Amino acid sequence: MDKEQAAIRIQALRKELDRHNYQYYVLDSPVISDAEYDRLLRELEGLEAAYPEFITSDSPTRRIGAKPLDAFSTVSHTMPMLSLANAMSAEEVIDFDKRVKKLLNVSAVEYVMEVKIDGLAVELVYEKGLFILGSTRGDGYSGEDITQNLRTIRSIPMKLMDNQGIPIPERLEVRGEVYIGKREFEELNRKRGEAGEPLFANPRNAGSGTVRQLDSRITAGRKLNIFCYAPGQIIGAAIETHLQFLDYLKKWGFRVNEYAHPCKDVGEVIDYYHHIEALREQILYEIDGTVIKVNRFDYQAHLGAVSRSPRWAIAYKFEAQEETTVIEDIIVGVGRTGALTPVAVLKPVAVGGVEVSRATLHNEDEIRRKGIMIGDTVIVRRAGDVIPEVVKAIEEKRTGSEIPFVMPIACPVCGEKAVRPSGEAITRCVNINCPAQIKGSIEHFASKRAMDIDGLGVKLIEQMVDKNIIKDVSDLYFLTKEVLMGLERMADKSAQNIVDAITASAKRPFNRFIYGLGIRNVGEHISGLLAERYRDMDHLSSATEEELVAIPEIGPEVAGSITAFFKDEKNTETIRRILQKVEIEHTKRDKKELEGLTFVFTGTLSALAREEARKRVEELGAKTAPSVSKKVDYVVAGAEAGSKLDKARGLGLKILTEEEFMALLQKPLSSHNPG
Ligand code: IVH
What we know:
The protein is an alpha+beta fold. Helix 12 crosses helix 13. It binds 2-(butylsulfanyl)adenosine (IVH).
């Protein structure tokens, strides 16, 4: 190949590789295999090595990092990078909306809502379509030149795409958030733990630590990503609204967040916030709220900024999930499986509006991995319904008086031996009659998601086990009011209530009964699968391992625990006694019962959280939408339902009250043809 041919081939390869980069990293839908991509990249590397005069800074081969820098140089931003004012409640958002309308002297304003990504703000500068400079936000006026590091992020275009007549501006400044995904963060910390390196406290710290590496080859080795969401200076393209800007960004090849959503009024804004809040856990990267932006650019310009925040945008934040506190002690709890679990006793602290005084530490290895000692100042985290967790110790706060934790060699409840089998992380009490195990299994059986025995709480179970009134769950069904009345704080009425609740629990669906048994490795989901496959306890208890592994999603480990459970005579005897009193319901809901229907939630539901409501309809095959449109079938209106309800009425959609909705979840609709 002569020089001229090489130049042509280099051009073609770059174009091809850029396209595949875009498919893979921006659209998340690769069209060639990794091996094929590598082959093209290697061919380009070979040609560039042979003809170094053709190397350009925007070549796909330049994404692997370059020589380490001694320091970052400083760049000033053409336009200051502002920060956002925060709103913490719907009232504050309503005030924001009023202020905006008043300043603009209009009665209606359209907003665009986005998720607030918890990462690091950066600016990307393109001249004549080429990426020439990338910087951190810094103090808003000037930041650090991190161009080399940003080149390693594959979803940042090195060259703007020429697309459908969209102009390539003379100069384009784009702002966005660099972040590291939740899964990638876990993976990074896992590797660091194994290498004995200090852990990052959260994805945000990991992201900002990575993007500010002087050695860009380290940056290249970690999976950073970006979402672009705001303009800086633009010369040579006229854009009128934020939505249009986002559309242009996509067409130029930038990665834009999928949750950007127009809202007609403040009611829709608040509803969308709740919609995003419900999705938070399942979103693959950390978000700490939403951002509300006035859509029209002329309105934005008119509104301007005060101090360092624009008046046309506000962050509507979730309550914080992380706080700092002190570990006063580490105690060891014993669960229903006999597992000894270290629990941190914390100086009480409010996290996300809930007071936290205990946090699980999982097991010995986890404590060592996180480097936690008694007396440490730590970061605690609470997310959704999840048990609070200690994220890590803040080593800089150590005084030298901290005490390392040692796992006890005897069960703290019954005093029998506690063993940790080699190769396992969990230490267990060996005594199957350990009161902690008995209490734990009864608590589990009676819990909401299992047999849901109202009023049968921890205190009562403890008393009954300690006084030998019950020895396993089957004894519950033989309890009498008279026996209960002999217990502390049990009057005639409360004893009767407990007996009634136990009787009522006798009619739970089969899957919940299976779940309640607490078979190791059998959670709610597997219980559901088993209930679908087996008609009754007789059939389930005689299932063989081969038969069980034939069920999709059930592997040999789960199958083994199920057969082992039913081989144990103590268990079969317990079940036999329960079945004398319990009538298990075998009718199951059709998974596809609500298929094809779309639900929207508005207002506050009292019986269950929105997220839970959403999950329940999705389990029955329905979809949920954030806002009302003609495509929506049912609008569930809770208390203080907002503008969505008015809109739904306007469109003549079927509206359900909370009671009607709950009834629908309980039993099938006669017809799913609304309206
Ligand atoms: S817009 C003038 N949109 O939040 C408004 N910011 O305190 C410029 N952020 O520095 C920012 N997600 O780091 C905007 N969708 C989003 C965002 C977002 C996260 C960050 C950004 C900014 C900070 C504002």
